[in-house]
Structures
1.
Amino acid sequence: MSAGYAGLVQDSPHTSNTYHRLTMRTLSSGGTAASLHFKHTMDKDLHRLVLTQGINLQEFCVSQEYGFVLSDPLTDLPEYYQPWMEIAKHVPSLIENRQIRSRVNEMPLLSTVHLQGHREQRLAHLALGFITMGYVWQEGVKHPSKALPRSLAVPYCEVSELLGLPPILVYADSVLANWKKKDPNGYVTSLNLDTIFTFPGGNCARGFFLVSLIVEIAAATGIKAIATALNSMSLYDTNSLHEALLDIAKSLNNMREAFKLMHGNVDPGDFYGQLRIFLHGWRDNPLLPEGMLYEGVWEEPKHYSGGSAAQSSAIQCFDEFLGIRHRFDYDAPYLYRMRDYMPPAHRALIQAIAAGPSARHHIIATGSAELCHAYNNCVTVLVELRNYHINTVVKYITIPVNKGKVTSGCIFQIHSSAVAERGTGGTDLMCFLKSVRDTTRRVLINDI
Ligand code: HEM
């Protein structure tokens, strides 16, 4: 088993593609002088490729309709894997009855060789992720488990390696692959959606994952428009570039509108008091300072961040396209690290957009006031989206922290102010979010 999952190169059906090979190699190159030279060469190659061939989203496992969301996720695994599915489907009641640890300790050690294809692997990663978080946090914050038993750790790390994801519940699991239609013949609408797995607190967890999913689907047209914009720039087609910028702004607006659904679907007290604990990881977490031991896999404990929408590839694609460069002395390291928690193909798309021609420079060079306005509008809407997000974080985290508000009778009370004052991923919350927002604003073109 490899020592870490960061930048792991994985063989997906799409790796035969030139882009993919280049982006994967760029991402997996380390920090030595030789590899930095290699990375620079690769960036230049990628830049040339984006210029000459444009971007084909399919090659990055991004769909026109759903963006980064996994289309048609499977909801069940073959018979052999029912011991996992039986536990994963009943995570809320097993946690409430404090039985999940004993059930997992009795689980047989299953092989991952029978998992067929990407969708089965994604469902296995999702199921094992829910089981893992339930196992670690069954007793709330008081007695987290410091180790995962062999029957869980070994297959989880194997399937993680196959997917190029870390062995912890990530956004690509709990949001992007954790959905189904209630009526399989119906459309994908908020009323016809349900999660595959959930945590205690029923409606809160379901609402949080599904609203995030709807926000992510709203991003799909914007990601498509980024590809169009890059292609238009290489053809010097200003009309098409203008249309694409309008579509990007519209998509960002739709994301903000979808975000508003959070308020009717997720109660702040339930979110803070019940759900949040199950999203906590074991990196920068004072409750698990030594990290997590994956028995039967590694001798030493490992440190992985918890699930956060900061692992959404969509927002980072918008940032890279608009030329927003976060502060390397502050926010950027965390945001870059979150890329290691994304599926490699999605991470590769961010890298390809970053390596492509600069939209901002191109637009300024055209001298077109219309294009500058359309670009500024995209930036303004992204700032508004980030402002909306900050206000939501105040409502769902800062206010409950200050009030010490938790749902009555809930055993998952968060006592540790060290955890409470930080984000799920362990960042100094408000300063971080405001700095990211302010950096976004800084790219506005002033001299029009
Ligand atoms: C109740 C709802 C939400 C809460 C309480 C919340 C909380 C947080 C927190 C605490 C962070 C700081 C990073 C960390 O510690 O992990 C963060 C970052 C982030 N969140 Fe959320 N979040 C919510 C919903 C969403 C949704 C629906 C999205 C969009 C898909 C989103 C996108 C982001 C992004 C992109 C970041 C990184 C900072 C940035 O790029 O502006 N969040 N969020």
2.
Amino acid sequence: MVPSLETGIGSIAGGVHLHNLNALDWQTRSAGRVSGLMGYVGRAVAEAVFPQKCRACGSFWSYVPKFPSGEDRHPVVLDPVDGLADVFQAVAMPWLCPDCITSFEAVASPLCGRCGVMFQSRVGEDHLCSDCMRRPGNFRRARAAGVYSGAIMALIHQLKYRACLALIHPLGRLLQEAFRRHWQPEEVDMVLSIPLHNRRLRQRGFNQAQMLVDAWANAVREEKRDWQRFPKAREIIVRSRPTAPQAGLGKPERRRNIRRAFKVVDRSAVQGRRILLVDDVYTTGATAEEAAHELKKNGADSVDVLTVARTMPHSGS
Ligand SMILES: [Zn+2]
Ligand SMILES: [Zn+2]
């Protein structure tokens, strides 16, 4: 029997270091311990004392809960296409004001069946984009949860550049839900984060992609499922040389910048395996292509790519 990678979106827990806890964390955590009238009063007082700051636009906002559970805070709007927008609203609720939370755009068909780019025309079937027809590339399929713009972009920036590590939890849940919608669990043997070079790791202090995978592994472990499919990426593939940041570079420069930047250090772990690479953002695909090239060269059966967000040529990001 093939064990399942799939896990419920509400199941990530533990293992994530919650630095930068803001007032809201305190509110929700303390409010969760009491119930009924006391909970209602406690939350109302907490929110009056600590107004919430939107992580996207920076504005302070507050609300008057109609019900003790506070479930009226953001009415959940179901996405008729794939529902990832309502998942985003549910998981990002504590971090975003009511205006920003609606700016999430889920990645949805019609899209390129390989690289996952959404077509400007929103009617028709999935098919290969012209780039993928010209260059079949090294990975099999890339998918993302959302279009890299608006609130999701702001949350990823907060995570990466402001070390708001509490965001691993909502973004990890979104990532898992995207996997559930775009893959059959038995299509993947192993989940690996895109590694950072040691120098970058020391500068930043953490690898956000590895933390997303760790959160996923924790959820699977809690359900007593096959968490062995989530090895530490650095024991299998490493960045063998430092590279300049990809941000601000065009596609050919990105490809040159990342060339031969990865090295498989455990060939036997890779051979014959179907690998899912995880990263926070897919931009031109140069990083994913290069990592997939190294994995395939060392005997990987297939490489897929999953990211929290993806730039789209028409989105202007
Ligand atoms: Zn906002
Ligand atoms: Zn494509």
